[in-house]
Amino acid sequence: MILAVAEQREGTLNRASWEAVAAAQQLAARTGLGPVRIAIAGGEVGGSAASLAEADAAEVVALEAPALGAYTADGFTAALAGLLATDPPAFAVFAHTYQVRDFVPKLAARLGWPLVTDVVGYGEPFEGRPAFTRHVFQGKLAADVVAESDGPCLVTVQAGAFQADLVARGASPAPVRRVEAAVEPSAIRQKPEPPFQEAKQAVDLSQAARIVAVGRGIKEQSKLALVEELARALGAEIAASRPICDAGWLPLERQVGSSGQTVSPKLYLALGISGAIQHAVGMKGSRTIVAINKDPEAPIFELADYGIVGDLFEVVPELVKALGKSA
Amino acid sequence: MKIAVCLKQVPARDTQPRVNESKTWLREQDATFELNEPDAYALEEGFQLRERHGGEVVVCSAGPARVAQALREALARGADRAIHVEDDSLASADAFAVADALAAAIEGERFDLVLTGLQSDDQGFAQTGVVLAERLGIPHATIIMEVAVQGDRVRVKRELEGGWFQWVEMPLPALLTIQSGINQLRYATLKGIIAAKKKEIRKVTPAAVASRQRIVRLRAPEKTKQTQIIPGPAADAAKELVRRLRDEARAIE
Ligand SMILES: Cc1cc2nc3c(=O)[nH]c(=O)nc-3n(C[C@H](O)[C@H](O)[C@H](O)COP(=O)(O)OP(=O)(O)OC[C@H]3O[C@@H](n4cnc5c(N)ncnc54)[C@H](O)[C@@H]3O)c2cc1C
Ligand SMILES: Nc1ncnc2c1ncn2[C@@H]1O[C@H](COP(=O)(O)O)[C@@H](O)[C@H]1O
Predict the structure, then answer these.
(1) Of B48, B245, B66, whose CA–CA distance to A288 is shortest?
(2) Using CA positions, which residue lies closest to atom 10 of ligand 2?
(3) ipTM of the complex
(4) By the CB < 8 Å criterion, does A73 face chain B?
């Protein structure tokens, strides 16, 4: 059996849940280790379980307990450890969300099962074992990874690596089974407060038609003037990768990516940005993507429509000139 | 307060790793190494907590002999002492093996707070801190942007996706994985570098290092997108790019 574990917040299914289901179905098809089951945990998850039941699956398990109403690492670890230990799957597939990062390593450690994180695809099996492809060295290399044992194994899949719309739908809804989670409230050490957003952002990059985004390739804060000049010539907003905002060179509200804004302008011009997944998820919906990077192997070129392999300090001034002439 | 900070030494970011003969890891002899970036923020957070609450900051790293260099650097920045869990196989071990090795080395010290980075720049497991917390039997929280110690409890600001945050409180001892950008980094001073020479690095030999997963093939990532690379000297490429953005992509007027 292959188990896909979905995620919800306050009754709303996380979109990445469908990607985990798609990944589990594809793994079942490749390995013949099906059927696929789906689990979802929370305080009350009937609605989410009913949506998930539309997928082609043998069963949806609604793992419920009042103590799971607000997410805690201790609570979710205990609940899922109980479920997984009772009926161990060959593989349990999760989406690599921040919540999953927070508790699944603990779950794996408690169960004593291997955990392969941030998987982007399946490789050729190795010595009869399924191989999982993941990016290492900041996306510069891809690694096929196998578990060292034949027992159960946990897997998390990278955002966007498996398409939600490839989920196979069932002819009729899958049966939903309610399971009372074994969670002792007094054993939960974390006391969570409600999630919140910081004060409304002054800059709304999601509305920008054109964006010039700058990354660590700019090297020094003083060099940002160059980028500003290009943004002016293009009539574009300025955005940045995380390290630029971490350093305080640009305000946090200009950060694009999983922990920043999600943008989809007509034009996204990435200067000295390597294209890490956490940046990519925030900008890959842009209509036209241009990358200027001195490293021809930089992952950003996998996203770009147009690329210039070169030194941004040489190319950007020429771009400003060319734009001036063309106007 | 007794604070442990776990540091990993990783291949330098701006170098292209060369794959070894068996295609299972990089050729270590060709690589230059540096401190994993998020770990520098964890270290700085340790210093700031020490400034506020007193106590000591102990840095711990699991890896081959070269790792001593990263520990020296942390001592020069201000760490009080260091623990080096030394074994060649730890260079490419998985998060379980590393967490086991670190847990065995620090368990006896009863730290109030253990800090790690949120992810390593080489393997990028995003697991080691959380597994270590389970091994030590202490609570944890991940992707932390603010830390407030209040008596025997700690209140932390967790980053959630898409600009959301959440405060979480838990009893000490606890383990936190620190997000980049939580503080402003300070670097070693000459005085610090000299002082570091006298500081202790305790060496520990781990019991058997057993990973639960292994890399069987290491290769260049597959290319799926046909990016139009515009060649030529900067001036020509820039002109051509502007032309294509205007005429082909209609992304500029
Ligand atoms: C949980 C989590 C959340 C994260 N959230 C975000 C997020 O929201 N947004 C985000 O951006 N990142 C985020 N990150 C960080 C992300 O993983 C990367 O570390 C980051 O995006 C890298 O930024 P960069 O591309 O600017 O720097 P680097 O990866 O260091 O890349 C710099 C690039 O510049 C190029 N370069 C250098 N010099 C020049 C030159 N002279 N001319 C041209 N090119 C040059 C280099 O070849 C390199 O490709 C997150 C990470 C984690 C773990
Ligand atoms: N070999 C190691 N020695 C010390 N700390 C480590 C080691 N490997 C990982 N860590 C810590 O665990 C964090 C997460 O690493 P990873 O699980 O590999 O993504 C890093 O940021 C380090 O703080």
Answers:
(1) B245
(2) B8
(3) 0.96
(4) yes
Tell me the pTM: 0.96
Return the closest-CA partner of residue A38 out of A3, A78, A12.
A3
Does the distance separating the beta carbons of A315 and B238 come in below 8 Å? yes
Chain A residues in contact with B17 by the CB 8 A cut-off are 137, 140-141
Domain segments of chain B as ranges? 2-204, 225-253
Q: Are B109 and B2 in contact (CB under 8 A)?
A: yes
Chain B hits for A148, CB-CB cut-off 8 Å, are: 210-214
Pocket of ligand 1 (CB under 6 A): A 138, 215-217, 241-243, 255-260, 272-274, 276, 278-279, 282, 292-295, 298, 311-313; B 13, 118-119, 143
Nearest Cα to Cα of residue B86 among B109, B70, B116, B65: B65
Which amino acid does the sequence have at A107?
Answer: L
Confidence of residue A202 (pLDDT cuts 50, 70, 90): confident
Domain A2-187 in CATH 3.40.50.150: no
User: Could you report the per-residue pLDDT of B82-132, keeping only the tens digit for each?
Assistant: 999 999 999 999 999 999 999 999 999 999 999 999 999 999 999 999 999
CB contact A114 to B (< 8 Å): yes
pLDDT at position B48, please?
A: 98
- Whether A16 contacts chain B with CB within 8 A: no
Conformation bin of residue A219: beta by default, left when phi > 0, alpha when psi is -120 to 50: left
Is the CB of B183 within 6 Å of ligand 2? no
CA distances to A95, A207, B53 from A282, rounded to whole Å, are 17, 14, 38
CATH no. for A205-326: 3.40.50.1220
A276 C-alpha to ligand 1 centroid (Å)? 6
Same fold: A2-187 with A205-326: yes
B 135-164: CB under 8 A from A: 135, 139-143, 158-164
Mutate to test the interface with A, among B168, B182, B243 (most CBs of A within 10 A): B168
Whose tokens are 């998987």? That residue is: A119
Under CATH, which number does the domain B2-204 receive? 3.40.50.620
Q: What is the pLDDT of residues A71-128, one digit of tens each?
A: 999 999 999 999 999 999 999 999 999 999 999 999 999 999 999 999 999 999 999 9
Domain boundaries of chain A, sorted by first residue: 2-187, 205-326
